[in-house]
């Protein structure tokens, strides 16, 4: 019992801690890669070192999922945490790394971005600094590959950080090197140990350059919010839902002596679990029978249920919402589980996407020994309405 209480307190602390992180004075940079044989991974570590050399800056190294689950990945790459597309919104800058595949980016990285439509239409990544590095074989088509990656970043309105001639003063010119003005690459199929020391130096410089731009821009206001301040209050939630292909389900019916929501002093109080079509989506315990991806899916569904009830509370018009005041996420986890905040981001990101500035909320995340009807998640929400 004492142990469970301790886990509960730690989970609350971590939940609040991670919220606080977004407001911390530290610049947060994501280094996101796909790598099959580890060449891109080695470059990524040098990029991360460069990022962290810049004052007050933290680098997080993650990978995108493999589109072929049977594919054998390099053992170090396999161990990296897997990023979700939604979490790109949480960083001040992102360095993207991919192998050169037929003078292009890898299909896995491309597939990851094919899921970015909600981020694209909501202009979430606009103005966020990004840079691209790669690992090639002979180097054939390496610059074309970086530029094709740039097409995706430009579509998202990201601020692209190139490398120019940085780091080339100390380049070992006795062997071929992967330097380009667009970003560092490694010639994994060329002579000597790869990445070469020169290629790693270039990558480090690139990481530092990204961190500098990310630090400079992180406290500036998003162009979208500057432009739309006066329009924001008139923005139509129904259009946002349609543009982002978000379908609000039917509100689940209460299964006991209670009501789906109460309203007190313009505040709506709602509690929901991961019901979908009358059944719990991905039931069970996170860290045991439920994977993190399944828990995130259940969290997303739970938040949709919250929106469904909220819509009823607003008389069918979500435009009446003035503010999401607070979200509390309870997760059915094993005692040693600690990544509650990452799971809850599925709910927080969805709320921010749908309600924009009005979606900004305080938050707590808590680990629980069990939850009703074996749901992996329960969300308590408080919204202010007109
Ligand atoms: C399907 C495929 C296509 C490739 N196309 C190219 C290419 O066009 N140019 C090149 O220089 N290397 C090419 N390569 C080699 C990879 O870019 C190289 O092995 C790279 O270092 C792999 O990165 P990784 O170790 O991070 O997986 C290709 C490899 C594969 C598997």
Report on this model:
With 386 residues, this protein is an alpha/beta fold. It folds into 2 domains: 25-224, Flavodoxin domain (Rossmann fold, 3-Layer(aba) Sandwich), CATH 3.40.50; 240-385, RutC-like (60s Ribosomal Protein L30, Chain: A). It contains 11 helices and 13 strands. The strands form 3 sheets. Strands 1, 2, 3, 4, 5 and 6 form a 6-stranded parallel beta sheet that branches. Strands 7-8-13-11-12 form a 5-stranded mixed beta sheet. A two-stranded antiparallel ribbon has the order 9-10. β7 and β8 form a beta hairpin. α2 (39-53) packs across α7 and α10 packs parallel to α11. The longest helix has 22 residues, at 292-313. It is elongated and about 80 Å long. It starts with a helix and ends with a strand. 43% of the residues are buried. The structure holds flavin mononucleotide (FMN).
In short:
Strands 1, 2, 3, 4, 5 and 6 form a six-stranded parallel beta sheet that branches. This protein has a five-stranded mixed beta sheet with strand order 7-8-13-11-12. The chain has about 375 residues and is an alpha/beta fold.
CATH homologous superfamily caption of the largest domain: Flavodoxin domain
What's the architecture of the largest domain in CATH terms? Answer: 3-Layer(aba) Sandwich
Shape designation:
elongated
Strand segment count: 13
Strand content: 15-25%
First CA to last CA: what distance?
43 Å
Q: Which value, in Å, is the CA radius of gyration? A: 23 Å
Alpha-beta classification: alpha/beta
CATH top level of the largest domain?
Alpha Beta
Biggest sheet: strands, sense, closure? Answer: 6 strands, parallel
Uncertain segments are 5-23, 229-233
Helix content: 25-40%
The SSE order reads HEHEHEHHEHEEHHHEEEEHEHEE
Reported by name, the CATH topology of the largest domain is Rossmann fold
């Amino acid at each position: 019992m004492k142990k469970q209480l301790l886990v509960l307190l730690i989970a609350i602390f971590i939940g609040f801690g991670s919220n606080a992180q977004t407001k911390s004075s530290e610049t947060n940079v994501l280094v996101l890669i796909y790598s099959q044989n580890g060449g891109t991974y080695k470059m990524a570590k040098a990029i991360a070192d460069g990022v962290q050399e810049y004052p007050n800056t933290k680098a997080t190294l993650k990978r995108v999922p493999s589109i072929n689950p049977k594919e054998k990945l390099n053992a170090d790459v396999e161990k990296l945490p897997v990023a979700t597309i939604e979490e790109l919104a949480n960083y001040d800058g992102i360095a993207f790394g991919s192998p050169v595949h037929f003078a292009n980016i890898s299909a896995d990285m491309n597939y990851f971005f094919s899921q970015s439509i909600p981020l694209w239409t909501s202009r979430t990544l606009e103005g966020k600094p990004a840079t691209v590095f790669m690992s090639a074989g002979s180097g054939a088509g390496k610059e074309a590959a970086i530029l094709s990656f740039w097409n995706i970043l430009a579509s998202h309105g990201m601020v692209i950080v190139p490398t120019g001639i940085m780091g080339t003063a100390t380049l070992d010119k006795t062997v071929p090197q992967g330097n380009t003005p667009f970003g560092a690459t490694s010639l994994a199929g060329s002579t000597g140990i790869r990445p070469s020391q020169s290629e790693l130096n270039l990558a480090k410089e690139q990481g530092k350059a990204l961190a500098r731009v990310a630090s400079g821009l992180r406290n500036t206001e998003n162009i979208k919010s500057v432009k739309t301040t006066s329009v924001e209050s008139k923005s139509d939630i129904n259009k946002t839902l349609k543009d982002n292909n978000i379908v609000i389900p039917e509100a689940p019916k209460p299964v006991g002596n209670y009501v789906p929501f109460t309203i007190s002093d313009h505040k709506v109080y709602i509690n929901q679990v991961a019901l979908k079509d009358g059944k719990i989506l991905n039931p069970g315990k996170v860290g045991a029978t439920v994977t993190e991806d399944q828990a995130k899916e259940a969290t997303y569904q739970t938040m949709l249920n919250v929106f469904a009830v909220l819509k009823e509370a607003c008389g069918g018009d979500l435009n009446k919402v003035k503010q999401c005041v607070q979200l509390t996420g309870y997760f059915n986890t094993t005692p040693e589980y600690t990544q509650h905040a990452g799971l809850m981001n599925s709910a927080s990101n969805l709320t921010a996407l749908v309600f924009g500035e009005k979606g900004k909320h305080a938050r707590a995340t808590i680990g629980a020994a069990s939850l009703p009807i074996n749901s992996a998640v329960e969300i308590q929400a408080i919204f202010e309405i007109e």
